[in-house]
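Re: the request from the purification team.
They wanted to know what the chain is likely to look like in 3D before they choose a buffer screen. I agreed to run a prediction and write the result into the notebook, where they can find it.
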Amino acid sequence: SQWLNDRDGFGLDTETKRFARLFFQPVLIWAAIWSTRTKKRKQIDD
């Protein structure tokens, strides 16, 4: 929407920056999912 409608936001003040963000977006999503993952805990059997 920002790229198509030429709207500024979050430091994206040129078409080039807005267009580049489209390709960087999957990396941002992956980083958010990876950083909030839960780790498997080992159970200690008595």
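For the purification team: The chain has a mean pLDDT of 78.
Please add any questions underneath this entry.
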